[in-house]
Automatic annotation (TrEMBL):
Name assigned to this protein: Methylenetetrahydrofolate reductase
Protein's GO biological process: methionine biosynthetic process; tetrahydrofolate interconversion
UniProt source species: Apibacter adventoris
GO MF annotations, alphabetized: FAD binding; methylenetetrahydrofolate reductase (NADH) activity
Alphabetic keyword roster: Amino-acid biosynthesis, FAD, Flavoprotein, Methionine biosynthesis, NAD, Oxidoreductase
Organism domain of life: Bacteria
Catalytic reaction list: (6S)-5-methyl-5,6,7,8-tetrahydrofolate + NAD(+) = (6R)-5,10-methylene-5,6,7,8-tetrahydrofolate + NADH + H(+)
Length: 317
């Protein structure tokens, strides 16, 4: 079932969902299951699985030349989605990224997803790899997420890259990312919203936001979206902080603000055990307010760990 159908079916009740990462290469799928199992009590209608692009490493050869080696650290998104659907009977939402993939690679992934009965995809551009610093698209790939949304929409209309071999259409529900505090590469929020609308016009049916800790940023973002004619559901992304380091790491990595009240609470903590509890309490209060505003779904970034999310969900659902 499509994410948008789950939202319609809930008739205004806030749903619970979360996102997981594929385990590092060679890790056991059981680790993922043991984190998901306790969360199933809260009936997530869908679970997202992130996609990860390659990174490079250079190896020195015996002749002194450098060989560029491509490494994929977390492959397996498609397989994990299939396993989740079979084991838990929930809808898996694979993320799909432009970076590192040709148009053909992407289309093949989508065809596999279609065969596996996966109804949703979250379409993203992906980030730059560490060694490059700025995002460089694959030579035969897409530069922006809106182009990849157009590709999936075309497939939904039965149009493929090499049409002579095609028959039938896919029927994916497409989600995209939105940034209440703007995407870091964009000079201002209005321009970022202009591009967000481009993704919606290309066929995206819902938005999942970047994590944030100040609900007012989400409310303002939703208002701005509505003012420019974006009417699709906007799902807030929540990540409880769990260690003191998050105060600096999260703003650096995700380009978000930390409210001063939260910073002061964390700074009072004597150890990370206390920070963990502060993070849980902050998320509970954040989510309670979001639920009062009838958000369609609370989407948790679990990063593969579930204990704090379990505690939060117990208070809310
Ligand atoms: P885009 O929408 O393409 O935007 C990228 C930048 O370009 C923005 O600054 C935008 O304003 C600008 N822009 C957009 N379109 C155009 C255009 N047509 N012309 C000019 N400028 C334009 N990353 C992963 O690698 N794997 C994941 O699984 C993953 N999951 C994520 C899930 C969520 C909910 C979120 C919020 C992010 C996720 N990311 C993931 C990170 C994401 O890939 C990065 O934030 C990336 O830098 C931007 O992706 P995007 O899809 O928002 O890009």
């Amino acid at each position: 079932m499509k994410v948008t159908e789950h939202i319609e079916k809930a008739k205004g009740k806030t749903l619970f969902s979360f996102e997981i990462l594929p385990p590092k290469k060679g890790d056991n799928l059981q680790t993922i299951f043991s984190n998901i199992d306790p969360l199933m009590e809260f009936n997530p209608p869908f679970i997202d699985v992130t996609y990860h692009r390659e990174e490079y490493e250079y190896k020195e050869l015996s002749n002194g030349l450098l060989e560029k080696i491509i490494i994929r650290k977390r492959p397996g998104t498609v397989g994990i989605c299939a396993a989740l659907q079979l084991k838990y009977k929930v809808d898996a939402v694979p993320h799909l990224i432009c970076g590192g993939f040709s148009k053909e690679d992407t289309e093949d992934i989508l065809i596999d997803l279609n065969f596996l009965g996966i109804d949703n995809v979250l379409v993203l551009r992906g980030d730059a790899i560490k060694s490059e610093g700025i995002f460089r698209p694959h030579p035969n790939g897409y530069k922006y997420a809106n182009e990849l949304v157009e590709h999936v929409t075309a497939m939904n209309k039965g149009k493929y890259l090499h049409d002579e071999y095609a028959s039938g259409a896919t029927n994916f529900c497409i989600g995209v990312a939105g940034y209440p505090e703007k995407h870091f590469e964009c000079p201002n929020l209005d321009t970022d919203l202009h591009y967000l609308k481009k993704k919606i016009n290309a066929g995206a049916k819902y938005i999942v936001t970047q994590l944030f800790y100040n609900n007012q940023k989400y409310f303002d973002f939703v208002d701005k979206c509505r003012n420019i004619g974006i009417t699709v559901p906007i799902i807030p992304g929540i990540k409880p902080i769990s260690i003191k380091n998050h105060l600096t790491v999260l703003p650096n990595v995700f380009h978000i603000d930390m409210p001063q009240d939260l910073v002061l609470e964390v700074e009072k903590c004597k150890n990370n055990k206390e920070v963990y509890e502060v993070g849980i309490e902050w998320s509970i209060q954040q989510c309670k307010e979001l639920m009062k505003h009838n958000v369609p779904v609370l989407h948790f970034y679990s990063m593969g760990r579930s204990k704090n999310i379990l505690k939060i969900a117990k208070e809310l659902f």
